[in-house]
Write a structure and sequence with these properties.
CATH architecture: Sandwich
Largest sheet: 12 strands, mixed
Shape: globular
Number of domains: 1
Structural class: alpha+beta
CATH class: Mainly Beta
Radius of gyration: 18 Å
Helix content: 10-25%
Length: 318
C-alpha cells in the first residue's frame, strides 16, 4: 500500500495509516496512562539483567559487521552487569534467536529520516511447554536508537507488553511493562490459515523531527473502535549516521530465546509484517511486506517446528 504520508492531521486530530487497508485511523494518546500502569509494576532486576546478558550473546553473532560498536556495547554492558556478566560471550550458548527474520545488510539501512514497522504478533496468554525463564516475541524497525516493543513471557506466567528504548542511557532503557490483564482492549482473535490465534497489533516508528532531533513512538491497535492508541513516545538527539551505523536494529520479528531447547510450547509468531522507510525529504516510502529478498530466516536449532511461513512477513512456530 503506497502513501507518502504515515500520519495525517485534521481538525486537531491525528490519524495513522493502517498498512493492510490503506486507510487512516484515528489515534488517541494514552501514553501517560500506560506510563502510570508500568510504574505500578514491581521492578524486575533479574529480567532486565537477563535481557542484557542475552543481548551480549546476540551482539557477538553480529560482531563481524559491527566490530567497534559491539566492542563498546560489550564493555558498557559488562560494567552494568558486573559479576552477573556472561563469562564467555565469544562462544554463544545454544539458542538466542529461536526463529525469525534478520534484515539483509542493504535493507537494514535503506532509509534516511525515519523507519517504521507494523506487525501482528501471535501471542497466547501463556507460552506453556517447558519454558522456565524468559521468552520474547520482539522486533526492531531497523534504527539503532529505536525501541523494541515486544511481548515478554516468563516461565508459566501471563505475558507482559514491554518497551525497551535504545535511545536512552544504559540505566534508563526499560520504559514500559504492561501486564496482560491491562491489555484487553488491544487483544483479539484472528483467523490465520483456518486457525484462530490471539493477537496484538502494533506500530513502532522512529522519525526525524528536525536536524538532529528524533522521536520514537509506539501505537497499539484497538479493534473495538478500529483506531490506534499511542502508548509510548520519546524525543532525543541523534543523527542518520548513528541510526544506521550500529548493530542494533539488525533483527526483524524474532522469537528470542533463553534456553538450550524447547518442547510443547504454544504456537507463537508474527503475521503480516510491514515496513516503511522515510527519505531525506521526509517522504515515507509506503508500506511493504517483509519479503525474503529483504531478510533471512535465522533458526538456532532449539526445537521449534514451523507451523506456517510466508517468506518472511508471516510465520508461526511451536
Amino acid at each position: 500500500m503506497n502513501s507518502n504520508q504515515l500520519f495525517r492531521e485534521e481538525n486537531e486530530k491525528v490519524y495513522l495509516l493502517h498498512p493492510e487497508t490503506g486507510t487512516f485511523l484515528l489515534t488517541e494518546d494514552k501514553s501517560e496512562e500506560f506510563k502510570k500502569i508500568s510504574q505500578a509494576v514491581p521492578h524486575n532486576k533479574a529480567a532486565e539483567q537477563a535481557f542484557l546478558e542475552h543481548k551480549l550473546v546476540l551482539a557477538q553473532s553480529l560482531a563481524g559487521d559491527y566490530p567497534e560498536q559491539i566492542k563498546e556495547f560489550t564493555e558498557k554492558t559488562q560494567q552494568i552487569l558486573g559479576d552477573d556478566s556472561p563469562k564467555n560471550v565469544d562462544t554463544p550458548p545454544p539458542g538466542g534467536v529461536g526463529y525469525g527474520a534478520m534484515y539483509k545488510s542493504a535493507f537494514k539501512v535503506a532509509y534516511n529520516s525515519g523507519a517504521s514497522i507494523a506487525s501482528t504478533v501471535i501471542c497466547p496468554t501463556k507460552v506453556a511447554g517447558n519454558v522456565n525463564t524468559w521468552f520474547y516475541l520482539t522486533s526492531t524497525n531497523r534504527t539503532a536508537k529505536g525501541v523494541e516493543a515486544f511481548i515478554s513471557y516468563y516461565s508459566q506466567e501471563d505475558f507482559y507488553f514491554k518497551v525497551f528504548d535504545w535511545s536512552k542511557d544504559e540505566d534508563d532503557r526499560w520504559q514500559l511493562a504492561i501486564p496482560k490483564s491491562n491489555l484487553g482492549d488491544y487483544l483479539h482473535q484472528k483467523t490465520i490459515n483456518n486457525v484462530s490465534y490471539q493477537v496484538i497489533i502494533l506500530q513502532n516508528i522512529t522519525s526525524q523531527i528536525s536536524n538532529n532531533l528524533w522521536n520514537n513512538i509506539v501505537y497499539l491497535y484497538k479493534p473495538s473502535t478500529d483506531s490506534y492508541v499511542l502508548v509510548y513516545s520519546s524525543t532525543y538527539n541523534s543523527s542518520e549516521n548513528e541510526q544506521k551505523g550500529d548493530w542494533v536494529g539488525s533483527w526483524g520479528p524474532i522469537v528470542e530465546t533463553f534456553q538450550a531447547s524447547y518442547t510443547s510450547i504454544n504456537t507463537v509468531g508474527f503475521d503480516l509484517t510491514y515496513l516503511q522507510g522515510r527519505d531525506s525529504s521526509g517522504v515515507w516510502s509506503g508500506w511493504q511486506l517483509l519479503t525474503n529478498s529483504l531478510s533471512d530466516i535465522r533458526n538456532d536449532g532449539v526445537g521449534f517446528t514451523v507451523v506456517f511461513l510466508n517468506p518472511n512477513y508471516a510465520y508461526a512456530v511451536h
